[in-house]
Amino acid sequence: MILPMSVAFRRRALLPALLVLGLSGCAHWRAAEADEAQDRPLAAAVGLPAAVVPEAFSTPDQPGAEIDSVSAWLAPDGARWLIATGKDSHDLRVFDGDDGRLLRTVGGEGDAPGRFRRPNGVFVWGDRLFVVERDNRRVQVLDLPSFRPLATFGEGALESPYGLWLEEPAAGELTVWVTDSPMDGEDHDRLPPLERLDGRLQRFDLALDGDGVSARAAGRFGPTDEANALHLVESVAGDRAHGVLLVAEEDAARGTGYHVHDLEGRDTGRRLGVGEFRAQAEGIAAWTCPDGSGYWVAADQFTDRTVFRVFDRATLATLGAFVGRRTAGTDGLWIRQAPSPRFPAGVLYAADDDLRVSAFDWRDVARALGLRETCR
User: Fold this and answer.
1) b/e per residue, 329-338, with b = 16+ CB within 10 A?
2) Cβ of 239: how many Cβ atoms within 10 Å?
């Protein structure tokens, strides 16, 4: 990712496939994850037509890292960096976004600035990188390209944070939404009572002044009735144009999918994909156009192959689904629409099986599902 690459890419035929899907749940802490991994399904229970879209590349395997979330940064010289969190290695893995080469590793275990404990969600905003640390119970802000630590926030408010999404409602001001999913029990594998689910979604307001970052907690959100409560949460993404904030409900027993909140944090009662996701609703990313049109791409986390479900950005209607040739167990997604020599129409990055990151050429996705390749 340090130099822009021009790589010839021979397009392979896109073959239709019939996938069969099952049910699964997911606990959020390692002790519970080990037990539950045995119960996660293969794509082998319910019929679903899905296109097969070959991966453009996969990064080298990162054993011991447990790759989770991904984001991308476009440098002033045109270089594309793909940044992924390593939860078990307590660091960030930085890859070339056009060919997948590992460029560097950043961080390591600790609570000092620039160090991490169980980094999970990651989000690039301009030349700032935001990293959620579950076990340090904070969000860390780093400068790009130096990865110099600038600030942390959320200490004292967050208990077990996972994902984040942010926007800039006014110049120099950011709103950051963070999912927080603490569990009860010695092994952290038991849901808290309903009245304690009121803070599954938290908001922080940030002011930026050069390298200075000041933050304040701006609210805890989440229904506390059984029908609408958020139980197991991780991924979150929003859309200012349509006034929605999508929060993943990972608890398959209660109906995994996305709860649609407004940008004030209130549950609207609308749902995205509930009843369609059969493994687990995980990462979600938007492909957007200035006129408000576009798509949501969301990962249904099967252990053998991830089913990427596609929804209309405006109506949230289901448009189709695709799989890669090998990508499985996807947590985080990121769509980078800015063109590069390798990906003239943009690229979808997806975490793959905790080991690597896969890249999908948006042209291949669009042609397989009859979507737009560009906003023009």
Assistant:
1) bbbbbbbbbe
2) 19
Query: What pLDDT does 284 receive?
Result: 98
Average pLDDT, the chain: 89
> Domains, the chain, ranges and CATH?
16-369 (2.120.10.30)
Using CA atoms, how far residue 347 sits from 167, 223, 334, in Å, is 21, 35, 8
AA identity, residue 303? T
CA-angle at 132, arms to 307 and 179, nearest 5°? 65
- Confidence label for 162 from pLDDT (cuts 50, 70 and 90): very high
Return d(Cα 246, Cα 258) in angstroms, integer: 6
User: Is the pLDDT reported for residue 155 higher than 60?
Assistant: yes
DSSP string, 181-246: ---BTTTT-BPPPGGG-TTSEEEEEEEEETTEEEEEEEEEE---STTT---S---EEEEGGGTEEE
Quickly list DSSP for 301-333. Answer: --SS--EEEEEETTT--EEEEEE-SS--S---E
Which of 21-25, 190-194, 340-344, 372-376 is least confident? 21-25
